[in-house]
Design goal:
By secondary structure, the protein is of the alpha/beta class. The chain has helices at 36-44, 86-102, 121-132, 149-163, 184-202; strands spanning 6-12, 25-30, 62-67, 71-75, 106-114, 137-142, 173-175.
């Protein structure tokens, strides 16, 4: 997929105020320091489409970006270590779950995981929530440039083994590095092929 246009459309905390059209949506979510904004900028080939920050928890709203005029990339607040109040975290949780449970345009979620770390309870619990809610998702391993190739393989294998303790089948996964544009084509091709399948079903 070639990204020709990428534009910010709207930010809000109310699912009812999300765009009304029926374009497919792909939601990106992960723990607060996982490199989500950098990944979004890398995928869209725009340096400042998503706001990057040294302070985790910068994204605090549902952000819709229209890509190529035919699908939405949705940037959701991170969970985990954001430096926000407990009240704010509960508020995030409410509109995040509202988005996942009510947004009919959602095609798939991408759960971002820092490849350098062993499986984290909060990530595994969130994936379990998506599974129980029957929400399709893929895993995106981020920051692969921080590890050597053999270490990448081992960390991915360890993660898959942990998932197989509670999952019968592994979700799709992608290994990425924003600084090296690693994995970009794989993620975009997955979205493109999914969009083609949706279009075929509608026609």
């Amino acid at each position: 997929m070639i990204i020709k246009t990428a534009e910010f459309i709207v930010s809000n905390s109310d699912v009812a105020k999300c765009p009304k059209n029926q374009l497919p949506e792909y939601a990106f979510i992960g723990r607060s320091n996982v490199g989500k904004s950098s990944l979004i900028n890398m995928l869209t080939n725009h340096k400042n489409l998503a706001k990057t920050s040294g302070r985790p928890g910068k994204t605090q709203l549902i952000n819709h970006f229209l890509i190529n005029k035919n699908w939405f990339l949705v940037d959701l607040p991170g969970y985990g270590y954001a430096r926000v109040s407990k009240t704010a975290k509960r508020k995030f949780q409410k509109f995040i779950t509202d988005y996942f449970e009510k947004r009919q345009q959602l095609v798939s979620a991408f759960v971002l995981v820092d490849i350098r770390h062993e499986p984290q309870k909060v990530d595994l619990e969130f994936m379990e929530y998506l599974g129980l809610s029957q929400i399709p998702f893929s895993i995106i391993f981020t920051k692969a440039d921080k590890l050597k190739p053999k270490a990448i393989e081992k960390h991915v294998e360890d993660y898959c083994q942990e998932l197989l303790k509670s999952w019968e089948e592994l979700p799709n996964y992608f290994v990425t590095s924003s600084s090296r544009t690693m994995g970009r084509e794989d993620v975009l091709e997955f979205i493109a092929s999914t969009n083609d399948e949706i279009e075929a079903l509608r026609s």
